[in-house]
């Protein structure tokens, strides 16, 4: 029909006892059905953590990650039109938590490898030919050029209605054996995505002994005279519920990433 639809893809982990990766599609502008997370069949061999994701063409590239504490060189492609997976050629090096992006139709992957001075520190993937090649650099990968500037943080006003549910995010007891003060920094309970000019905020919340994933669409307005930024919550609701087994009643959901995509 020549039409496109905005979709948000979420990738989550369920913690702490048996980590289970779950991927969902979310359609914020759906009119004929309620806003819900639609589960997507996962790839059986995808690394469960530290992968990088890039949206390009008709789908999402999942690059590298950690498998059994080792960096992976595997690359997978999720076709967002049909929710099917394809195995792509591996990178020259195993990588985890890389910086990845698209420039002129090619995917550039930086760092994340065990050998920081390797000649393959930067690799480039051509989606047309399905080939990787190393990008030669003439300077140390640790070097960087920073431009100084002034940044001032301001509180966003008007979000009082979300305070109760946001305060419940990450409200979890990790048990005696796991130090929660360290895990809190590793397990963020929220993630931001764009929805046109607005923001989508996802977070987890404990309700009725179940974990709920909530979403709110927020529009922003700058008030120049008062030098304030005001937010309006267009809508806010639970978009899915994750059951917790009785033998392990305490779980937590880590939202690894959220990616906006036009299908």
Helix and strand topology:
Elements: E1 6-15, E2 20-26, E3 37-40, E4 52-56, E5 59-63, E6 66-67, E7 70-71, E8 75-79, E9 84-88, E10 99-103, E11 106-110, E12 122-126, E13 131-134, E14 156-157, H1 163-167, H2 180-186, E15 190-195, E16 198-207, E17 210-223, E18 228-242, E19 252-262
Parallel strand pairs: 14-18
Antiparallel strand pairs: 1-2, 1-19, 2-3, 4-5, 5-8, 6-7, 8-9, 10-11, 11-12, 12-13, 15-16, 16-17, 17-18
Brief summary:
This is FKB95-like N-terminal Kelch domain-containing protein. The chain is mainly beta.
Polypeptide structure, described:
- Residues 34-139 form the FKB95-like N-terminal Kelch domain.
- This is FKB95-like N-terminal Kelch domain-containing protein.
- Pfam families: Kelch_FKB95 (PF25210).
- The chain has 263 residues and is mainly beta.
- The chain has two domains: 1-42 and 154-263, no CATH class; 43-143.
- It contains two helices and 19 strands.
- The strands form five sheets. Strands 14-18-17-16-15 form a five-stranded mixed beta sheet, with no helix packed on it. It has a four-stranded antiparallel beta sheet with strand order 3-2-1-19, with no helix packed on it. The chain has a four-stranded antiparallel beta sheet with strand order 4-5-8-9, with no helix packed on it.
- β4 (52-56) and β5 (59-63) form a beta hairpin.
- It is globular and about 50 Å long.
- It starts with 5 loop residues before the first strand and ends with a strand.
- Residues 139-143 and 171-181 have low confidence and may be disordered.
């Amino acid at each position: 029909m020549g039409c496109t639809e905005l979709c948000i893809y979420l990738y989550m982990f369920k913690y702490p006892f048996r980590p289970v990766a779950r991927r969902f599609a979310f359609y914020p502008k759906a009119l004929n059905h309620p806003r819900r997370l639609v589960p997507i069949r996962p790839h059986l061999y995808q690394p469960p953590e530290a992968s990088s994701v890039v949206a390009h063409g008709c789908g999402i590239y999942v690059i590298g990650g950690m498998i059994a504490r080792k960096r992976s060189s595997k690359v997978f492609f999720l076709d967002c039109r049909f929710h099917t997976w394809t195995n792509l050629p591996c990178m020259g090096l195993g990588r985890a938590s890389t910086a990845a992006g698209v420039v002129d139709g090619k995917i550039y992957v930086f760092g994340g490898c065990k050998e920081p001075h390797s000649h393959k520190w930067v690799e480039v993937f051509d989606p047309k030919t399905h080939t990787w090649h190393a990008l030669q650099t003439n300077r140390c990968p640790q070097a960087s050029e920073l431009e100084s500037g002034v940044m001032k943080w301001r509180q966003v006003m008007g979000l009082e209605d979300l305070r109760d549910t946001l305060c419940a995010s990450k409200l979890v007891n990790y048990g005696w054996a796991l130090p929660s003060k360290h895990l809190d920094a590793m397990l963020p309970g929220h993630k931001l995505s764009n929805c046109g000019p607005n923001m989508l905020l996802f977070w987890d919340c404990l309700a009725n002994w179940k974990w709920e994933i909530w979403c709110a669409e927020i529009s922003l307005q700058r008030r120049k005279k008062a030098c304030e930024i005001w937010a309006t919550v267009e809508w806010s609701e639970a978009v899915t519920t994750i059951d917790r087994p009785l033998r392990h009643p305490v779980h937590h959901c880590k939202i690894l990433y959220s990616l906006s995509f036009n299908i």
